[in-house]
Amino acid sequence: MLQITDKAKENALDPLWRMPFRPLFLGAAIWSCVALALWLLTLLGQGSAVLRVSPQWHAHEMLFGFAGAVVVGFVCTASQTWTGLRSPSGRALVGLSSCWLLARLGYLIWAVPLWLPVAAELAFFAGAAWAVGRRVIAVRQWRNLFLIPALLAFAGLSAWHALAQTQSHSVAVLALLLVTSMVLVFGGRVIPFFTARRFGETARAKWTWLEFAGHGLCIALLLAVALSLPKAWAGCAALVLGLIQILRCARWRVALIWREPMLWSLHIGYWSLVCGLLLLGVAWCGLLPVNMFLLESAAIHTMAVGGIGSVILSMICRVTLGHTGRSPMQPPSATALAFVLLLAAVLARVLLAPAMVAYWLSTALWLLGYGIFLWRYGPMLLAPRTDGQPG
What we know:
Strand content: under 5%
Low-confidence stretches: none
């Protein structure tokens, strides 16, 4: 249990700098909209010679700028709950957030030397690894120790992707699979727990062998891609991992989730990740007589938009409500609409590609979905808790 020794000092902080989720969720949501809008304008022939907007930039900013910020905001906030030790706040949080913002601006503007955003982003992820790691180690919470190498891997991949000339796509896929693996780990912990608790039921006991098999296959898939092993090997790992997740999901209680947007959004997002893994496995194993590039792109965007994008939107809504003194099961109006818009975005991107309508329609739907988050949840992130407690 967290002990606040100086409540007055805590409450003297500007609300934005009291907990990591506040600036990082807000910044991630805003930046995802800015980055996608700039990317769409470039595709429509309205790009600027001043801005470093390219396919590589688009992938980098959605993986490391958007998803990376949410991952850091989530784990740094959750580490306080796990360990009872205060999460970064005040000047430490300003410094961490400034590194993230400096990286975003540096990667965007051509005139900025590339070493500057690379160094800033390395400092951002390494700082997060230090902040989470020292708290986890202090209380000997070994089950979350994997976050240290995971965050350091984010740091290394972000620099590798920014500096790579011919391998940027492979590095982006590897980063996507790293985010996917983290969502599978944490989603597998919290989604069935949230579901069972909402309906006053007891979550089914986990099958240890199933959990370890899933974690092991995540590692195997990441290593296969990182080591550039034959595509078929990585494809087999993706297929088996997807099948393992289907078995895992089949044990979750879902009969009543459809009346609760805060639950069905998490489940559908998780299922989208599973579908993406299966599509990726089919593409890499060459199991269908179709264009592998298009099938791989469909798999990637099923995971990125339908899986990671949807799960992130649902989780940042839930965390924002819970950590600002509100009930996660009483979301503001239009929250369910935001979730539906994200699901429509992935359908548009996957089913209509490569037609141009797929890009502008999916981008517009994303902007609307995350725009609703900024409209309804942004003020919560900027205001003190409703119950007057620190945080």
